[in-house]
Specification:
With about 425 residues, this protein is an alpha+beta fold. The protein has helices spanning about 5-20, 50-55, 85-90, 95-105, 115-120, 135-150, 165-175, 175-200, 205-220, 285-300, 310-325, 335-340, 425-435, and strands at about 25-30, 35, 40, 60-65, 75-80, 105-110, 125-130, 160-165, 225, 230-235, 255-260, 260-265, 265-270, 270-275, 365, 370, 380, 385-390, 400-405, 405-410, 415-420. It has 2 domains: about 5-170, Creatine Amidinohydrolase, Chain A, domain 1 (3-Layer(aba) Sandwich), CATH 3.40.350; about 175-435, Creatinase/methionine aminopeptidase superfamily (Creatine Amidinohydrolase), CATH 3.90.230. It contains 13 helices and 21 strands. Helix 8 (about 175-200) packs across helix 9, helix 8 (about 175-200) crosses helix 13 and helix 10 packs antiparallel against helix 11 (about 310-325). The two termini are about 40 Å apart. It binds glycine and manganese (II) ion (2 copies).
Length: about 425
């Protein structure tokens, strides 16, 4: 089980049940193991929604929440049955008997009988809620068709299917104190790993060797896996936003961009730092870096309860665009560069995103065309960047410089808290840390 109390999972399920219509069922499936090649599999990663509702880390499992016509509720789990041979080969299973108490549900059935269980639970139910993106849709549809094909035996098939993703996304967007504690912990672990990377980086190291230090530090500090494939890009590789080859030599005189975060109890950190491979920023690198840092710090100031991400982003665009004009990377007026979107050749992504069980976490950014103001308990990244790819229409001395600075913040009732402040980001602090090593 996890650091989240059983009662919190029960509260989450109760919140779903309270929104369900009478005489309905809600089905949420686990992830399945995914083949890597032939008969080997990727490390199992639970489905984020299933994990959010159960804290149960096994594949082949299904949560079924039921509400009858009188509003009485029942919580059912289908999970892998105990099986000595399967457990010798593939790992321990909780099993149906233990699942009831461990997961705090009313009943547990073997996943081997999922089709029959769905058939009996759906019979007579009007509405089935589910997540339309989940593969469990196939079994839900099959079950409904089977129920419809046996009218003479008195089975009654559900008549409507409703996607309940919006309910879950709204819940997942606002983190509980227990979730914030875990996310603060993985943010600190990840920040410490980035600090180590700054200290061990040397010219002529390969990008994947620097990546190895980051991953070692994640695991050593309690986060076994990265939350996403780490990006370690030296020189102009930093200008490829989702660069993951990580197989080039790091050269003195170049910057290296590391975008990496650990995963703890399913929760992600997402940090980027950019620093000089040899420990000293050149004048041009420092000038561009300071623009990104000024923009990032201005954004963090602005991201408060009830503020809009778009408003902070506008300030970031203005700081970056003016900075690039001042350096001669862009020419013309601030207004023209912003109106004509010319700044987007150097800053082409958004300011940040929600963070949680998914690195690009769920939750609405706008509803009916209206931007959603930030609420306390929201975790997000703040990650402006400037990327001057080779061949860009600007002085050649700036070519091949890519810079992003990414922190994770939680919106509080009075402002925000930066969770990733254990890794330096000012030029002076980065150079001082690298000089110590
Ligand atoms: N690591 C992916 C991102 O920063 O959005
Ligand atoms: Mn990132
Ligand atoms: Mn990010």
């Amino acid at each position: 089980m996890t650091k989240i109390a059983l009662s919190e999972y029960q509260t989450r399920r109760a919140a779903i049940l309270s929104q369900m219509l009478p005489n309905s069922a809600c089905v949420v499936g686990s992830a399945q193991s995914v083949t890597r090649s032939n008969d080997t599999e990727y490390v199992f990663r639970q489905d984020s929604y299933f994990w959010y509702l159960t804290g149960f880390d096994e594949p082949n499992s299904t949560l079924i929440l039921l509400k009858d016509t009188l509003g009485q509720t029942r919580q059912v789990i289908c999970c892998q049955p105990k099986d000595t041979q399967a457990e010798i080969w593939h790992g321990r299973r909780l099993g149906c008997d233990a699942a009831v108490a461990t997961l705090g549900v009313d009943e547990a059935f073997s996943s081997d009988t999922l089709a029959q269980t769905l058939f009996s639970l759906f019979s007579g139910v009007d509405t089935v809620y589910s997540l339309f993106t989940q593969p469990i849709q196939v079994q839900i549809d099959k079950c409904i068709l089977e129920l419809k094909s046996v009218p003479k035996q008195g089975e009654i098939a559900p008549t409507q299917k409703i996607d309940c993703q919006g309910w879950l996304d709204a819940m997942r967007l606002i983190k509980s104190p227990a979730e914030i504690d875990i996310m603060a912990e993985v943010a600190t672990i990840s920040a410490q790993a980035h600090s180590v990377a700054m200290q061990v980086c040397r010219p002529n190291m390969n990008e994947y060797q620097l990546e190895a230090h980051i991953q070692f530090e994640f695991a050593q500090r309690g986060a076994r896996q990265p939350a996403y494939t780490s990006i370690v890009g030296g020189g102009d590789n930093a200008c490829i936003l989702h660069y993951t080859q990580n197989n080039q030599v790091l050269n003195a005189g170049e910057l290296v961009l590391i975008d990496a975060g650990g995963e703890l109890e399913g929760y992600a950190a997402d940090i980027t730092r950019t620093f000089p491979v040899n420990g000293r920023f050149s004048e041009d690198q420092a000038a561009l870096y300071q623009i990104v840092l000024d923009a990032q710090m201005a954004a963090i100031e602005l991201l408060q309860p009830n503020s809009l991400i778009a408003d902070a982003n506008q300030v970031v665009i203005e700081i970056i665009t003016q900075g690039l004009i001042d350096l001669g990377v862009l020419s013309g007026s601030l207004k023209d560069n912003i109106d004509n979107l010319t700044y987007r050749q150097y800053f082409m992504h958004g300011l940040g995103h929600y963070l949680g069980l998914d690195v690009h976490d769920v939750g609405a950014y706008s509803i009916a065309g209206k931007a959603c103001p930030l609420q306390p308990g929201t975790l997000m990244t703040v990650e402006p960047g400037v990327y001057i790819a080779p061949g860009s229409p600007c002085p050649a001395r700036f070519h091949g410089i890519g810079i992003r600075i990414e922190d994770n913040i939680v919106i509080t009732s009075s402002g925000n808290r930066v969770l990733t402040d254990k890794v330096p980001k000012t030029i002076a602090a980065i150079e001082a840390l690298m000089a110590q090593s």
